[in-house]
Write a structure and sequence with these properties.
Structural class: alpha/beta
Distance between the termini: 34 Å
Radius of gyration: 22 Å
Number of helices: 7
Number of strands: 19
């Protein structure tokens, strides 16, 4: 694509949040191609689900919500979640004829003197009056620094690199992290490994239920952070780990014995401050992800606290930009609601712009 294309709204990302935004843009009367487009870096439909490890079955996943307008049901719970969700997202794109371009990587978003946004990609440039960013976190795994990490003689990998437990047969594995993915991986790896050691920075908080009161409290904690312009933090920090049948089974098997973070890494393992050592062949960092927002850096959206101050989905310092799947909307239910809210605000913004041009 050599020429510059103009469109009212560019949606960056076609995962859950991006597809939700596309649905509500369509329903609000925005025309495909001229009214809105979705630019997705993936090789095919499915968002981050495409990248999940093959041994993650649909039955292992909790919290899947329907995309707006199309129910998700009838899938075999024993099938890989990556396959099932990719099929569902593909069916959704077809059902609502969403204008998705892929693979397209957005390299930067720039302000222009005419108040349009220049969305530069590896496939050319779009110019938009508003932008919905729905890039999620999967493409930015977080690797924490620990002394001696570069000296480790074994293998280190992140959840993003994990493809199943078979390659860890007979190995001694340290699993680092206190989130849902960490305990899922720990459960799988423990079946084949010679030994495992689970370490977390803070003691994990297990909760018996995650009902309405707990949800409201979690939302309030995240809202306080993003409203103050701070990074939103991890999901598990806000919600804790609900006791599932899997976790209860792991507890009964003695797999949930947690150790504090080690003090340093040595070539053949990890060492704690009291001098205790665990000899390891593998360190598996299940340490989460960070929002993929580097392409928005030219807009200077971040505040002194390191985060982006938000009012709902709208960026406080630039009302043309909405973040969905970020902060309060970093969940499947939240992403759907965020798509609706973003489109509502964008309609108001564009209508106000048209009125201003008319008065001029």
């Amino acid at each position: 694509m050599d020429d510059v294309r103009r469109v009212d709204v560019v949606v960056v990302g076609a995962g859950q949040a991006g597809l939700s935004a596309g649905y509500f843009l369509r329903r609000a009367g925005f025309a495909p191609e001229t009214g809105y487009v979705l630019l997705d870096a993936g090789a095919g439909p499915g968002g981050a689900w495409r990248e999940r490890w093959p041994t993650l079955r649909l039955s292992d996943v909790h919290g899947i919500s329907d995309l707006p307008g199309l129910r998700f049901d009838g899938a075999d719970p024993d099938r890989p979640a990556a396959e099932v969700m990719a099929e569902y997202f593909a069916a959704y794109e077809r059902e609502f004829e969403l204008p998705v371009y892929r693979p397209v990587t957005v390299t930067g978003v720039y302000d222009r003197p005419d108040r349009w946004l220049a969305v530069r990609t590896d496939a050319g440039e779009w110019r938009a009056r508003a932008l919905v960013n729905a890039t999620g976190t999967w493409r930015r795994p977080f690797w924490p620094y620990y002394p001696g990490r570069a000296s480790f003689a074994g293998r280190q990998l992140h959840t993003a690199d994990y493809r199943g437990p078979d390659e860890f047969a007979g190995r001694r594995v340290v699993v680092v992290g206190g989130g849902t993915s960490a305990v899922q991986v720990l459960d799988e790896v423990a079946e084949v490994a010679a030994a495992t050691r689970w370490v977390t920075r803070r003691p994990p908080v297990f909760v018996e239920e995650f009902g309405l009161e707990q949800r409201r409290a979690a939302v309030a904690r995240v809202a306080a952070r993003v409203g103050a312009g701070l990074p939103p933090g991890s999901v598990v920090a806000a919600t804790g780990l609900p006791w599932t049948p899997r976790l209860r089974r792991m507890r009964a098997a003695g797999l949930l014995r947690r150790y504090p973070m080690f003090d340093r890494i040595v070539p053949d393992g990890v060492v704690w401050s009291d001098g205790s050592v665990f000899a390891a062949d593998v360190i598996l960092w299940c340490t989460g992800f960070r929002p993929v927002l580097d392409h928005l850096a030219p807009l200077r959206l971040r505040g002194p606290g390191g985060g982006i101050a938000m009012d709902g989905t709208r960026v406080v310092v630039d009302e043309r930009v909405h973040l969905v799947g970020y902060g309060l909307s970093a969940s499947t239910i939240g992403a759907n609601r965020a798509g609706r809210a973003a489109v509502r605000d964008i309609r108001r913004l564009l209508a106000a712009d048209r009125d201003a041009v008319g008065r001029a």
